[in-house]
Amino acid sequence: MKVKEIATAADVNPDTVRFYTREGLLQPTRNPDNNYQQYDADDLRRLRFARKARQLGFSLPEIRQILEQADDHHSPCPMVRDVFQQRLAEVEREIAELQKLRARMVSALSTWQDMPDGTPDGHTICRLIEHWDTPSSTSCCEESE
Amino acid sequence: MKVKEIATAADVNPDTVRFYTREGLLQPTRNPDNNYQQYDADDLRRLRFARKARQLGFSLPEIRQILEQADDHHSPCPMVRDVFQQRLAEVEREIAELQKLRARMVSALSTWQDMPDGTPDGHTICRLIEHWDTPSSTSCCEESE
DNA sequence: TAAAACCTGTGACCAACTCACAGGTCAAAG
DNA sequence: CTTTGACCTGTGAGTTGGTCACAGGTTTTA
C-alpha cells in the first residue's frame, strides 16, 4: 500500500500517515524502484490501533511504547491499563478545571448584568473584568504533570 | 519599572512580561542610557487586566483588541460581553467533549475488567484497545450532567 | 505526450507561554 | 577597584499532534 491507500483505509489524512512514519509508529519498507513507502497489513493494523488509542486519550509517545512492547512479544496490556488509569485521572482533572472556569465565567456574567458599560478613563480599561474577583481559591496552581 | 519589578508586581513570570511586550500588549518606553524597557503604572494596569482576562478565557488576540479599543477611548465592554458569551459556549463544548471522552474511558475500563491480557501474536497488538468500540462521535453519548 | 494525481523530504504554523543562551549593565561587597 | 551576582537585552527552540506549503520526482490517465 502507498501512503494515500493506507490513509484512506484508516480514514486519516495522508500527512498523518507520513507524520506517524516519521515518528516511528509505522515502519514501512521502501520500493527500491521509486523510493516510495510501502505499507502492509501490519502497518494498517498499527495505524488503526494508534487512532483508537488516540481517541482513548493516549499520547503518541505512549502509543509508541505500547507498539514497541508488542513488537517484543510482551503483552502491552498491563501497561495499557496502567497508563489508562493515569490518563483518566488527568481527564478528570481537566474537566474539573474547565468546570471551575465555567463557574467563574457564569458568575462573572451574572455580575455583569447589572453593570453599565464604562468608557476608558485612563484609570480603568473595562471594569467588567477589572472589578471581577479573581478566584482566591487558587487551589488550582499545582500544575505539575 | 523594569521587567522584574512589573513582573513581581503582577505576579507573573518575567518572560511573560517580555512575551506580552513582544506581542504588543504592553508598550513600555526605553531607557536611552541602557536600552532597558521602562514600564509605568498604566502598563501594570494593562498587565493585570490581561492576566484577569486570560483567567476568564480570553485569548491574547482578543485581549489585544480590547486594549486597543480602550486606547481609542471606545468602551470595550460591549465587545467583552460579546466575546465572553462565545468563550463560555466554547468552554461548555470543551467540557462536553471531555465528558464524552471520560465516558468512553470509563466504559472501556469496565469492559477491560473481564478481559485477560493477551500476548501479541501478529494479529492483535492489545485487544483491550483493538476490541474497543469506536464511538461514532456525534450519535452516541447522551449523558445528563 | 501532457495533465492530473500521487510521491518525496523539509520546514513552517497553531497557543501561550517557558526556558536556554550569549553577551551587556549595574549595584553592592570585598 | 574589581568581582560577583542579579538583572537586562534579543533571539530561537521546545511544548502537542498534527496540517499545510513548497519544490521537485514519478505514475497514471486521457
Head-to-tail CA distance between termini of chain A: 39 Å
Query: Helix share of residues of chain A?
Result: 55-70%
Tally of separate domains of chain A: 2
Mean pLDDT of chain A: 83
Stretches of chain A where pLDDT falls below 50 for ≥5 residues? 136-145
Care to describe what's here?
The structure is a homodimer. In chain A, about 60% of the residues lie in helices and about 5% in strands. Chain A is mainly alpha-helical. Chain A has a two-stranded antiparallel sheet. In chain A, a hairpin with a 6-residue loop joins strand 1 (about 30) and strand 2. The longest helix of chain A is centred in the middle third of the chain and has 36 residues, at about 75-110. Chain A is elongated and about 70 Å long. Chain A starts with a helix and ends in a 15-residue tail after the last helix. The relative contact order of chain A is 0.07. The structure holds a DNA duplex (30 and 30 nucleotides).
